[in-house]
Amino acid sequence: MLIYTVKTGDTVNNIATTYNLSPSSIIYNNQLPWPYNLTVGQSLLLSTGASPTDKRSFYTGGYAYPFISEWVLEETLPFLSYLYIFSYGFTTEGELIPPLLDDTFMITAAKNHGTSPILTLTPFGPDGQFNNYLISQIVNNIDARRILKDNLVAQITERGFEGVDIDFEFILASDRDAFVDFVAYMQQSLSPLGATVSVALAPKTSDTQKGLLYEGKDYARLGAVADYVLLMTYEWGYTYGPPMAVAPLNKVREVVEYALTVIPADKIHLGIPNYGYDWTLPYVRGESKAVTLGNVEATQLAITNGVPIQYDEVALSPFFRYNTASNAGSPAGSPESDSYTEHEVWFEDARSINEKLALGEEYNLRGFSCWQIMELFRPLWLLSADRFSINKTPFP
Fold it and tell me: pLDDT tens for residues 323-339?
């Protein structure tokens, strides 16, 4: 596949003519809405020939809530090894708390496509946030841990889950060893059922990295006891932070290179974001809050506002700026009517996704997992299928 960057004067039709393609294939690959307008700097994925046949095997995963569109799910499942269903909570006594919506259709759909449905286990408190008190209670209480294990076994044997993804964040440093023991216990208990146990890891660059996100995660030991790990290599640009790439490749590479010093490559999944953020400027720490948006939505926002998309050569990520009227209801000609709010948007496109996939290939990683697949971004899946042979077997 070819990634083409739109230039001044380009249209879908003249690009199609240049590359001897049908306009409909360009429209389909890139989810272009009528009337198929483009903007300078936009990346387009072009299907220019047959995919290589000697591709290496790669595992892919995607997180989804039970309110995902069934159409989006059906479009995505052919490209997934694992569907991580988000999420199941638990009590301090080890009782499972299922999602508010029934997820049975997700399990069924996944199996129909040869994709493994994975139960994502999260320690959410009553406020819907990660709760390290809840983590402490479950990892340090042998009886509660056993009850939780029994409940997970029931989900696997009765409902068809094929694995558990342990996504615990903000683990206390004092619970670091207990958390490793917890993951090891779950892996030893579920492996005889043919189920995988994976664990999500905050993006560390050293074992001694400070901070609540990092101190409770022992990369080396967790990598040893889990079947595989997910590096959460995203959220450098985040809701309350300053405008920047969500997953700048230079920062992602630092995390991968550290992880490889303590975890085998064939146990590592690279985390890939499927979203962007829209910030208003100037950014004010403690006050500013970015709006989340999909990658297709971001591109259309640039087109609608008639601004070019730029590409940061260090982060290897696309971005743009646009203005909105701050006082749209003010009388024409008044000073207020000429006031504007500036926005800065960072997101993912075919170029940035391709760089991340290339990084996974460069280091021979086990695969990648996408947070999250609630909105379809077709270039991600077409590029992954073009570069890799998607492995549909839970274990090698």
Answer: 998 765 555 455 555 68
Measured in whole angstroms, how far is the alpha carbon of residue 137 from the centre of its chain? 29
Catalytic entry in 169, 215, 344, 348:
169
Q: Which residues contact 353 (CB under 8 A, 6 or more apart)?
A: 272, 377, 379, 380, 383
Closest CA to 353 of 280, 299, 286: 299
Tell me if 350 sits within 8 A of 376, measured CB to CB.
no
Tokens of 211: 């901070």
Q: If you search the block for the tokens 């290939």, which residue do you land on?
A: 361
Residue 86 contacts residue 394 (beta carbons within 8 Å): no
pTM of the model: 0.95
SS (H, E, C) 100-113: CCCCHHHHHHHHHC
| C-alpha–C-alpha distance, residues 376 and 340, integer Å | 32
CB distance 359 to 256 below 8 Å = yes
Task: Please identify which residue in the block is written with the tokens 């000609």.
Answer: 333
Using pLDDT thresholds of 50, 70 and 90, give the confidence band for residue 394.
confident
- Can 254 be counted among the known catalytic residues? no
Q: How far apart are CA 257 and CA 254, in angstroms?
A: 5
In the prediction, which pLDDT does 52 show? 74
Whole-angstrom distance, CA of residue 322 vs CA of residue 281: 10
